Amino acid sequence: MTERAAHAEPVRHVLFDADGVLQDLPGGWYAAMEAYLGGRAEEFLHETWSDELPMLAGRGDYLPLLAASLERYGVRTPATEVYDAVWKNIVLIEESLDVVRALRRNGYGVHLGTNQEKYRGAHMRTALGYDELFDVSCYSYDLGVAKPDPAFFTRAADRIGADPDTILFIDDTAKNVTGARTAGLRADQWDFTQGHDTLHALFEQHGVDARITA
After folding, report:
1. By three-state DSSP, how is residue 2 classified?
2. DSSP 139-175
3. Of the candidates 81, 98, 114, 133, which lies 20 to 30 Å from 19 by C-alpha distance?
4. pLDDT tens digit sequence for 88-133
5. Is 178 exposed, middle or buried (0-12, 13-18, 19+ CB in 10 A)?
6. At 97, phi and psi to the nearest 5?
């Protein structure tokens, strides 16, 4: 039985992850932090990512925590300056955005499902124009739960107003794909380094028309 035949309803919505799918941090996180921490950049990032986890679910304020961590590591640069230089250093993957626009033109609901704390999320919504690009935006800090928890996807489907089985989720992380499937969504793992032909092949498997026409 094919993937398409296994489902009673066709895909009507596509839910996209952000980092690794729609956007990238040039050179990677470790290189970005080396300017401030040298050889301790990786150690610092893993520590601060762990500290950040409650903020991804909307609990707490990340900037004071980041400031305290930087001070502990002997970094004198203000936390807001480091945050702007690293966390907001986002490059959009234009070919991915073209796919988003094509799906909307072809009649699909197109939505964002991403783990972010409130400051980076606000930057994405406004400075990057995601509020205008997507029909529904599901930021973890706003939903109150982060991927890969299946509750993230249940709440996202409720916000979209659609049966989970009619939503296809695209994410670059295997555990998030598993969480989505557990919640009843269709889901596939993909990141932009695999090339967009691979993404289009995934869409074809689900009967999704993502053709980009002039």
Report:
1. coil
2. EHHHHT--TTSHHHHHHHHHHHTS-GGGEEEEES-HH
3. 81
4. 999 999 999 999 999 999 999 999 999 999 999 999 999 999 999 9
5. middle
6. -65, -35
Sign of CA dihedral 155, 49, 124, 188: negative
Confidence of residue 6 (pLDDT cuts 50, 70, 90): low
Is the pLDDT at 151 greater than 60? The verdict is yes
Element housing 110 (H / E): strand 109-114
CATH architecture of 13-24+92-205: 3-Layer(aba) Sandwich (3.40)
CA dist 203 and 210 (Å) reads 7
Element (H, E) at 132: helix 130-133
Domains in the chain: boundaries? 13-24+92-205, 29-86
Structure tokens at 213: 């026409």
